[in-house]
Amino acid sequence: MLRLFSLILLLAVAAPSWAQLPDSLAKQFAIGYAHYEKGDYEKALSAYQKAALTGYCSAELQNNLGLTYEKLGQYGPAVLAFERALFCQPQFAAAQDNLKAISSKLSRPKAQEKAGFIFQTWDNMAAGLGSHFWAYSFLFFLFLAAGSLAYFLFFSKKQGKTWLLIPLSLLLAFFSFMLSRRANYLQFNRQWAVVMSPEAAILDQPSIQGKEVELVGSGNKALILEEKEDWYYVRLPNAVQGWISAKLLEKVRS
Amino acid sequence: MKSYQLSLLLLSFWAMSSSLLAQKIAFVADCNASKVVLGNAFRLSFRLENAEIKKIRFPDFEAQGFQIVEGPVNESRYTNINGNRYTFEAYTFSLAPNNEGNYTIGPAEVTTYGGKVLKTMPVKIKCVAPSTSNVQSLNDHNLPPELAGKVLFRLECEHKEAVVGEQIRLNYKVYTQIDISNIELVKEPEFPKMYTKEYRFFDKDPRVEVINGQQYATKIIYSMGVFPSKNGELTIPPAEILISVGRQDPRNPFASRSLKQYPLLSLPKTIPVRSLSGQDKDYTGAVGEYEMELYLEKDEITTDEALELVMRIRGLGDIKPITAPPLHFKEGSFKILEVEQKEDIREGGQGIGGEKTFSYKIDPQEVGNLSLQASFVYFDVRDRKMLRIDSSLAIKVTQGKRILNQEVAEKAVDSSQVLSMQAALKSASWRPIPQPFFGTYRFYLLSLLPLLAFGGGYLLLLGQKKSQALKEKQALKNAPYRHAQEQLQLAKTALKTDTVGDFYRAIEEALKGYIGLQMDIPLAERSKERLQALLPEKEAQELGEILEHCEQALFAGQSPHKTMEEQLKHSQKLIKQLEKRLA
Fold this sequence. Notes:
The structure holds two protein chains of two kinds.
Chain A: H1 2-14, H2 23-38, H3 41-50, E1 56-57, H4 59-71, H5 75-88, H6 93-103, H7 117-155, H8 165-189, E2 191-195, E3 199-203, E4 212-217, E5 221-228, E6 231-235, E7 241-245, E8 249-251
Antiparallel strand pairs in A: 2-5, 2-8, 3-4, 5-6, 6-7
Helix pairs in contact in A: 2-3, 3-4, 4-5, 4-6, 5-6, 7-8
Chain B: H1 3-13, H2 15-21, E1 26-31, E2 35-37, E3 42-49, E4 53-57, E5 66-81, E6 84-97, E7 101-105, E8 109-112, E9 117-119, E10 123-128, E11 151-156, E12 162-163, E13 168-176, E14 182-187, E15 195-198, E16 207-211, E17 214-227, E18 232-236, E19 240-247, E20 258-265, E21 269-274, E22 283-296, E23 300-302, E24 307-317, E25 327-329, E26 334-348, E27 351-364, E28 368-380, E29 385-398, H3 405-414, E30 431-432, H4 441-497, H5 500-518, H6 528-534, H7 537-556, H8 561-582
Parallel strand pairs in B: 2-10, 12-21, 22-28, 23-29
Antiparallel strand pairs in B: 1-3, 3-6, 4-8, 5-6, 7-10, 8-9, 11-13, 13-17, 14-19, 15-17, 16-17, 18-21, 19-20, 22-24, 24-27, 25-28, 26-27, 28-29
Helix pairs in contact in B: 1-2, 4-5, 4-8, 5-7, 5-8, 6-7, 7-8
């Protein structure tokens, strides 16, 4: 009975999709790879673009797309592809390395805003292991705390220090909950965009008559704080905020 | 372009305005002919500008072989426009040479009230013998025979060839030996799809010219410029004028002269035109006489600023088709953002010209000491060849707020910070696009599950405890009956073994024990009477009978076997009755 219950629970939580993906995706990916290796980047790009499927993502595909754009000198789309690879798979090492490598070639505003060590570590922990990991950790510790309490109350003779497991589990569950909440915000609630235009002006108002407050090049990331018609109110990594034409950006989560 | 040439150009260029308003003192000799026919006069003027004559000395004309026909005629003028004063005073002579030959008329000398002594340049003039042959003209067939060769209408054009965009000046001139009352231009030459310009400023004074020994008074009546737009042949069509000439009635010498009009056409002309395209990659369509100036607002800027470079092209020629001349710089050091242009077209004595200004907005792409070269290539109409004007500028770019792409890349190279890209991946897997789990209904459902499980377990345990208590209570409740049954079992055993004493003691204990336990009566108080008093009448009677029988058997020794069996059944029956009633 318990096993059956566990299985049902697992199925409900995991909710995987058993839909069969078309073989053509893998074929197009292989064609793209072959063109890339031959140095025919335009054809590689075309093949990789055909390997994309709505509702699905592939960190490897986005990574290779980014490499192809980089070879074609299109740094904006390259950064966007690497970012999308990391959204698909936050711990994808190849995309992380490529993003670092391409960032060193880009013109970026000097970062003036730096979070404190504790906040930075907290964010790194949250984003590093991802929202799902921390959410399941929270559930695990919650179950552990409940089980320990039950054992302590109903089965043990209330002797020894087994009760210490209860506050410890509850504490860990609380931290996991907070980290999961933060990771969820970092991963899903924030809308990042990448500058696609060679030069994009950040203005002080959503109009072309606005005064320029910053000039950024292609490949720069901007956090979208507000959307207004064809304008985004964004925050740059150097804490500069302003309006930018939506035509100059591409959202990471489209 | 040399400076004095430029000065002359500019002087002529603003002929009507700037030269008139100039306050420079000048003393010039102006002759309306360079060649005259013997027996005819010419006019010579000496003009002092912007000064007052204190003393003037003319050349000795008679000693030099001239007869003074008229003069000196004095003329003076004074103008003051917006504070710019202009004066001139002139003395004019009409002179006729006494003989054929070349003459040089010596200088006149003037002393101004300012104390300046000025001399004119010598004037050269040639005197030729008169000719009896008439001047042949191809276009005077409309004139009567007596006027043939006496009035000419000619196109004056210095160009034997031209280039695309060149200013070709066409002067239409009338030559006459008779009095003409009026000249009317009835048909101008037309140049379809070509830029043309009618000039307002040209020499309108009559002059004297000699053709084939015949002296004519001449005057330019119409002047225009044409700018060929393509290579090939430029055909200048004829212009047409109407001249009005007074005629005397030969039969009545006293009658007034009547005016008669005659049409005259100029002869057409063809000029070959060649293209200049492809001769120099920096050529941007300028043809004429030009100079170039560069102005840089600042030669030291930061990466946040744009460079404002102004190039001014000034001179004679059509400035309209000139496009922005190229700027040369090291690749990647600058980026031209936009070029604005302004033009100011003017007309002067030498045709049209003007000033074209190109304002370049240039974005620096590098930090450091940079250089920029502006090149202007034009076709010089005097030298008949392409000329190039190059001008270099040094610009210092310092770091501002904006980080330049180039700089970032270089810095990265310098510090070996450029990381290499990873190799492409050979295989790929697809997964559903990640969706948030935290905060979903599944997450909260699973979060509540331990609490629900805990609650459920607690309730389960509580139920179990309750059930146990119930069982114990039930067990407690069944104890008298069980005790009675046990005693009855002992009695049954005693009956089989025929142990009378044990049998009746067991019967007695079964009844007394059952009632005592059922009614919670202490052992010491379980007497027959006490127990009977607690029971209903019928059961009390039966109990009394059985207990009495037991006492008799135990203490009197009366114990028939059949009676023992009956006693057992009777006791069992009574206990069941009591159980029904008391439980």
